[in-house]
Design brief:
This protein has about 130 residues and is an alpha+beta fold. The protein is built from 2 helices and 4 strands. Strand 2 and strand 3 form a beta hairpin.
Length: about 130
């Protein structure tokens, strides 16, 4: 993530969906993951691995990927936004296509099977180190 801008009046709180401006939290650390606590670390790690493989060396790596659930086939039906510092880019169609995004779709389906997302729920997976 980009370094915090000097004189920035606000920081990102853990509860915020998106990295705004600098992408750093109140204590000067990068904004972290945000997900419902019921998901096991194994399931969460599978989603992170799938996202890291998807972006890999050939695509620009976002700082974080945010999923907003507004209905649809579980988390796979969520709206997806890539965060690059303070810039957000929507992923048109999200990761709904199982054939095109097999590993990501499998990880999202695993989260959905574990616990169905609630309307308006969101998760954030930080990919920047």
């Amino acid at each position: 993530m980009a370094l915090r801008q000097p004189g920035l009046p606000t920081y990102n709180n853990r509860g915020q969906r998106y990295c705004k401006g600098c992408g750093w939290g109140r204590k000067g650390k990068p904004v972290g993951d945000l997900h419902p606590c019921m998901y096991t670390e194994r399931r969460w790690a599978a989603l992170r691995r799938a996202l890291l493989q998807h972006y890999g060396p050939d695509a620009p790596m976002p700082d974080a990927v945010v999923f907003d659930y507004w209905g649809g086939p579980g988390w796979r039906g969520a709206e997806v936004t890539e965060m690059y510092g303070g810039r957000a880019e929507e992923v048109t169609g999200g990761f709904r296509d199982r054939d095109r995004f097999a590993d990501i779709a499998a990880a999202l389906d695993s989260l959905t099977r574990w616990s169905e997302p609630g309307y308006g729920e969101h998760i954030r997976v930080v990919l920047a180190s």
